[in-house]
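Hey forum,

I'm writing up a methods section and want to include a predicted complex as supplementary material. The small molecule is nicotinamide-adenine-dinucleotide. I've pasted the protein sequence and the SMILES. Can someone with a working setup run it? I'll credit the forum in the acknowledgements.
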Amino acid sequence: MTILVTGGAGYIGAHVVRLLLERGESVVVVDSLSTGRPERVSGAALVDLDLGADGAAAHLEALLVKEQVDAVIHIAALKQVGESMADPLLYYRQNVGGMTNLLSAMQQAGVRRFVFSSSAATYGMPEETTVTEKTPCQPINPYGQTKLIGEWMTEASARAWGLRPVNLRYFNVAGAQSPDLADPAALNLVPIVIGKVLNGEAPVIFGDDYPTPDGTCVRDYVHISDLASAHLAALDSTAGDGPLETVLNVGTGMGASVLEVVKLVGEVAGREVTPTIVGRRAGDPPKLVADVSLIERALGWKAKLGLSEIVESAWNAEVVRRGTSAT
Ligand SMILES: NC(=O)c1ccc[n+]([C@@H]2O[C@H](COP(=O)([O-])OP(=O)(O)OC[C@H]3O[C@@H](n4cnc5c(N)ncnc54)[C@H](O)[C@@H]3O)[C@@H](O)[C@H]2O)c1
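Reply by user p_vandermeer:
Happy to help. Structure tokens for the complex are below, copy them as they are.
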């Protein structure tokens, strides 16, 4: 089987590509290399293309036909919430425009199997602390909106021309399967705290007066290796013409607080880590954890790794990347 992976040179995409190759699939990566790196595609064919560029749909259609692609895993996107608020049209152009080009090409080429990187950002600030796929989606920033619009495009395409989509709503992804695939961008809590500790600085916690057991925000952290395997399970579910669950949370169903993450990094580092507590940030719900019963039922998928494996693997990878010693 030949699978086209967009964003395959990025953090999550590189893990998915490697797992597909290990399973013996043929993989073609499309990536603009805006944040991705060519050395991370594990030897898969790499096409340097911006999905949002003029003419991208025709280019993609030709590629799908030439490579006889059976399925697409669409991971490429811009993903920085703050940037999306400062420059919303960039996010609409790249994420929504890019996905429109991709789906148009698939429609023309007759490729129907599709897995999409959606996000828990689609939920916004839900009233429930444990969210199911039926929890109303009210994204609170343009980034989350582009993900929800992407889901709508897949649902409409399913009805109109038979697309077989699975939208995976990732929760907080972290860790590394191996150091060469690590996330080099410190944009999420785990890499941010690790970076601070390695730099000898105090990690910052935004608010310790939330209605949670230790007062800091609780999130659902999923190991990148588990997330990658969820893509393969989702991809397999798109085969044939049977019933399909089209929206699935991907998390562990377990919450961990910011303070717990900071403490765990300190343990892995073998250092006393004292965070600096500052005021709350706007737009942070106290607790956001995935209800994972649907993905377990629909795909037989369940996360195998926990927070300690996430933090250990992310720490080891960052130490290797920096060429520093672990203690
Ligand atoms: N990292 C997380 O915790 C998280 C959580 C929820 C959802 N997601 C989603 O997962 C996906 C991957 O995230 P990541 O953490 O690997 O980010 P990343 O920045 O490491 O990877 C994104 C990849 O997409 C490529 N890309 C971006 N825009 C493109 C375009 N217009 N055309 C072609 N290639 C383009 C980049 O060069 C990069 O290789 C994104 O869609 C993101 O929204 C990530």
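Some notes you might quote in the supplement: The longest helix spans residues 88-109. The chain has two domains: 2-172+222-250, 174-220+252-290+304-322.
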